[in-house]
Input
Amino acid sequence: MKKLIQLKLKFLARLILKKYKPKIIGITGSVGKTTTKEAVYAVLKNKFNAKRSIKNYNNEIGLPLAVIGEDSPGKSLIGWILVFLKASKLIFLKDKNYPKVLILEMGIDRPGDMDYLLKIVKPDIGIITFVGSVHLEYFASKEKLRQEKAKLIKNIKKSGYSIINYDNEGSRKSINESKAKVISYGLDEKADLRALEIKFSFEEANKNSLQGINFKIFYDGSATPVLLPNVLGANAIYAALAGTAAGIAMGMNMVEISRSLRNFVSPKGRMNVIKGIKNTTIIDDTYNSEPQSTAAALGILKRILAKNRKIAVLGDMLELGKYSEQMHRDIGKYALKCGIDKLIVVGERARDIARGAEEAGMKKDNIFNFDDSVQAGRFLQDRIRTGDLILVKGSQGARMEKIVLEIMAEPLRAKELLVRQGREWLE
Output
């Protein structure tokens, strides 16, 4: 049944795109796809009839659902019939409100996934955010993983644009594989589009204010000031740069782009600051995890002045294949370098984070292991103190948002603030 639904969705999505011919922006990468999608949408939404894929609809079923503009009905037969009726209506009738620009995530798990997605959509603009280690277990090497993601760039026409993260070696290799015009972005001085003079709010006079980033975007000989008032993580800077590049590719000027970025909101579970019980502060980065993004989150934690202790709660990093043990150990060692006072790990693989931290010199009394996130959350409830700063991060499968739910000051706002609060996750 799943295979049949998948084939029908593919067929219907192709017909819809053939009829309406929207400009398509495809986004791929190991991390940062959703944050980049939100930044691109923030830039374009006020000038164009743009729509982005909801949630993380980026696979062989999610992508066509994003084209149709419907949620997944799950196991509901009636729900799927309604989806197919909506798709048929779009094909046989004219919807004048169908978006002119579609911003779509294109995720891959296994070899051949990008080929399948490219048979559904033909992006005019392709973005590679970052090539890391997520999904590596299904590929023979990091280079094979990179090549699969690079297929997006290779298939952009000469009249289109390839937008590539220059700072990441894996994505940077794709620059020479593009037939289209390339806009590279990053902090490196060789990038076409750069962020300069970056200032985080916690480095300013008000050390207790954790949200907000100021920087300048340098492009084509001029610098434009940008304010991201609602974000904390450095990943948001890269997302804003990719969004800026998309705006340029769509003919927008830098003043318009800078103004639009003020409306950028980081997605749930991506370095969001949430009030915790006992007057603590939670950095919620629970959407997903892999070594580079975990190191980046720990790096931010290191730079923040905490009123009391710094606590890192880290779950399993999944889909790392044969590299899993060493990568988890490396994160444990790095956590100690970042001045973490207490380390709590969740899951079997995350035990290697604890081992790495202990090997690097962290006292055993400051390290705690738990099999699941609920146990860890209840433990934290009793142990945290006023003024603690708590980073919570792990792969989707670790369900680390359950920990945030246990220690957040306003649990009734969980659906509004936390990731994975839909019925399909809570059943």
Summary: Residues 87 and 93 are 10 Å apart (CA to CA). The radius of gyration is 21 Å. The mean pLDDT is 94.
